[in-house]
Amino acid sequence: MAQARPEDIEYVSRLKFASVFQYVTAHSTEDVAGDNYFHCISQRYLVTGDEIQVVCLAEDKSWTKGVFEVVSADTHNTLIEQIVPWRTGGPKKKSRGKPKAVASEKVA
After folding, report:
1. Helix (H) or strand (E) holding 11
2. CA-CA distance, 79 to 26, in Å (whole number)?
3. Cα 67 from Cα 90, distance rounded (Å)
4. Across the strands, what pairs with 64?
5. Which of 13, 80, 86, 93 to pair with 67, CA 20 to 30 A apart?
């Protein structure tokens, strides 16, 4: 089971009732959304109500982003809930082959 690494989390800002963190990883979205993924860093960094902006990087330099909220964090479990759905982006794939020909306009 994959676990979050402390060196991958970055403090972004402190809100009135919580903090915002950014977490960048090469783990999959399924790993991040899995049980207790953030538990090993929750005892040091996270409290209930904090938001974690997660960026999952792929080998092809594409990325997937989502936002989670810490629902509860204790010595045995850390529960998170996804509050912004995953979205994907990254470098545009270049088309291979010849460019399409453009029909020329006839002048009357």
Report:
1. strand 9-14
2. 21
3. 18
4. 56, 88
5. 93
Count of other CB atoms within 10 angstroms of residue 21: 21
Provide the whole-model pTM: 0.78
CA-to-CA separations, 79 to 7, 15, 99, in angstroms, rounded: 21, 20, 51
Kindly report, residue by residue over 5-53, the tens digit of the pLDDT. 988 998 889 877 889 999 999 999 999 998 899 998 988 889 899 999 9
Burial class (CB in 10 A: 0-12, 13-18, 19+), 93: exposed
Of the pLDDT bands very low, low, confident and very high (cuts 50, 70, 90), residue 103 is: low
Which token pair is 39? 């538990």
